[in-house]
Design brief:
It is a single chain. By secondary structure, the protein is of the alpha/beta class. The chain has 2 domains: 120 residues; 91 residues, no CATH class. It has 6 helices and 12 strands. β11 and β12 form a beta hairpin. The model has no long low-confidence stretch (mean pLDDT 97). Bound molecules: iron/sulfur cluster.
Length: 241
């Protein structure tokens, strides 16, 4: 896996952004996160070695824009170049997550058609309001690989009717001392919906404030992912062939 951040910075956009780790990290270093700036890694996936080979090896996942939002307005004039890079590197798979899925059709290249094979798009939601708004948009978009990221999940949500052409649903809680709690029942409810629709499901992260069997636990940040893994509730969809 590799990270590619052609730009950085982001503006808080919805409820899920309350404890954004980019903003938290930047504030410790007195960096203004609201300033969206190009990075020196803009062309990272097409950088080459002296022998002419790409520096970035083939057949891996490239996590795109994990310190910003790929669809943010400030990057509109830069994105076209990124699409060209993604198209050039057919030997890599790219994944970006976005809370701005309503901008998607304004952001795609002219040759997008029904989507690039090597592009996975994760639509991030946090509550029923954002689920209804964003997933209603996502379901009609020409994207070959769709993921739904329920993180940070801050309430119980019903999403089964939006799962028809979704490949993976990820659930995670919020990480912060004052984080809004994650109730394990909500996680199991989403899992049940994925099982009903035969969609891959992953419980990726507990919340700092985690409720199980009506009891509130305060968990250390370091164990949020390992605790979720220990629950052993991930689901791999049965082949639809
Ligand atoms: S959209 Fe994502 S990166 Fe941007 S402020 Fe919200 S949580 Fe942070």
């Amino acid at each position: 896996m590799a990270m590619w951040n052609p730009w950085r910075g982001c503006r808080k956009y919805s409820d899920g952004c309350k404890f954004c780790y980019i903003h938290k990290g930047d504030s410790k270093r007195s960096v203004d996160t609201n300033l969206i700036t190009k990075t020196k890694n803009f062309e990272y996936p097409i950088k080459k070695l002296k022998n002419g080979e790409y520096k970035l090896k083939s057949n891996q996942m490239v996590y795109l824009c994990f310190s910003t939002d790929f669809l943010i307005e400030e990057a509109d004039s830069w994105r076209e170049e990124c699409w060209k890079i993604i198209k050039e590197r057919q030997d890599l798979n790219f994944l970006f997550l976005t809370k701005r899925i309503d901008r998607f059709l304004d952001c795609i290249p002219t040759d997008w058609n029904d989507g690039y094979d090597n592009m996975i798009v994760g639509c991030t939601i946090e509550n029923q309001r954002t689920a209804n708004y964003r997933l209603n948009i996502l379901k009609n978009l020409p994207i070959k690989h769709k993921n739904i990221i329920c993180q940070p999940l801050i309430e119980n949500i019903e999403i089964e009717k939006y799962l028809d052409d979704v490949e993976l649903v990820v659930v995670g809680g919020e990480s912060d001392y004052n984080a809004r709690p994650l109730n394990y029942d909500w996680v199991l409810n989403i899992r049940k919906q994925c099982l009903n629709k035969n969609v891959n499901f992953e419980f990726r992260q507990c919340g700092t404030n985690f409720i199980k069997d009506n009891k509130l636990y305060k968990l250390n940040t370091k164990i949020l992912c390992s605790q979720a893994k220990k629950a052993n509730i991930n689901f791999i969809a049965k082949s639809k062939a």
